[in-house]
Design a protein that fits this description.
The chain is mainly beta. It has two domains: about 160 residues, Sandwich (Immunoglobulin-like), CATH 2.60.40; about 130 residues, Immunoglobulin-like. The protein is flat. About 35% of the residues are buried.
């Protein structure tokens, strides 16, 4: 995940209405690119929670290379269970479209119950690169027809589980990282919910501190096989290869350089091409650990969206990831073999 230095998100106006009708949210997002006039993307959201489906009316202006994504949930504020997968609505320029989606697995929203929708603006094919996010609620008090021409939305590949999960960054093993926590209808104000386990325990995104909501390592045990990874994507395979040829990575773990970093073949995922870098670490003794991630380029590159390297606004990336290892209360400690280079002294 890169740091989008030239991207500025300004929430100009958010309008909420009573839960007795569908919620309408208006937001303006401004992006600034090098040496060109500022471009503006905007989205107006009208969400209707019906008994067995949801209806969305979207309108606004969308900068090239960005789309709308949404997911519907059975509770207010993105709570409860997921009623749909994450879905992508392709828009561009001035747009006014609607979408309607049937809830998965014959789920329904009872009359008088509140459902919600998480709506984000992000790059085409990469919902993790969020530039705007809003959650809207609606009381199920009937259904309306779509107000605009219907869009053709598509489901987005993401990790799923019977428990609540958040959409995360792309994983080198496929799908997305997500933190899975037990569903708990009782909310105690001021008491944080215990950290859950990742759907891919041991996979550590090297820049997790900067993208905590989408790359939280979760609860980690000394029996987990730790793998530290990072990635890059671009519009074309050639642009990814150009990055590989010019990228200068300085990634350390516990101040020592990561060893045996493996570079994946370039693959097309969604509308972009990706490469993943993975460093196998293995078992670590209990304690706190940290990754220091630095990236520069030997010469300027272009990923199809922005320019990176010498002479650009994106000339470097500096990130970190901190996490803690706990002793597995149910693991066979006799079988654990710690990595002697990185593990803390016992």
């Amino acid at each position: 995940m890169r740091k989008f230095i030239s991207l500025i998100v300004l929430i100009i106006l958010v309008t909420g209405v009573s839960l007795t009708m569908a919620q309408d949210t208006t937001t303006t997002t401004t992006t600034t690119a090098t040496q060109v006039p500022a471009a503006t993307s905007s989205i107006n959201i009208f969400f209707i929670a019906c008994e067995s489906q949801a209806v969305f009316n979207f309108d606004g202006t969308m900068e090239a290379g960005y789309d709308i994504y949404y997911q519907v949930f059975s509770g207010a504020g993105g709570g409860g269970t997921a009623l749909t997968a994450l879905r992508q609505v392709t828009v561009g320029g001035d747009y006014a479209v609607s979408d309607q989606v049937t809830y998965d697995n014959n789920q329904t929203v009872s009359a008088g119950a509140t459902a919600s929708a998480r709506v984000i603006m992000a790059r085409e094919g990469n919902p993790s690169s969020t530039i705007f996010e809003e959650t809207v609620n609606d009381l199920q008090d009937g259904c309306n027809s779509p107000a605009n021409p219907l869009a053709s939305s598509t489901g987005v590949d993401q990790a799923s589980d019977s428990a609540a999960a958040t959409t995360g960054v792309r994983s080198p093993s496929g799908g997305n990282l997500s933190i899975v926590t037990p569903l708990n209808p009782i909310v105690v104000i001021g008491v944080p919910q215990p950290l859950g386990r990742s759907n891919k325990p041991g996979e550590i995104f090297a820049e997790c501190d900067q993208y905590r909501e989408r790359a939280e390592p979760g609860k980690l045990y000394n029996t987990d096989n730790i793998r530290i990874f990072w990635s890059w994507f671009a519009r074309t395979e050639e642009q990814v290869q150009d990055h590989i040829d010019n990228a200068i990575y300085n990634v350390t773990f516990q101040t020592a350089p990561l060893q045996n970093v493996q570079i994946s073949p370039i693959e097309k995922i969604g509308t972009n091409y990706w490469v993943f870098y993975t460093a196998p670490v293995g078992n670590l003794s209990p304690g706190k650990y940290g990754v220091n991630f630095k990236l520069t380029w030997a010469q300027q590159i272009d990923d199809g969206y922005e320019k990176y390297g010498p002479g650009t606004l994106n000339d470097r990336v500096n990130s970190t990831c901190t996490f803690e290892i706990e002793e597995d209360p149910q693991g066979d400690q006799a079988q654990v073999q710690y990595n002697g280079m990185y593990s803390l002294d016992r």
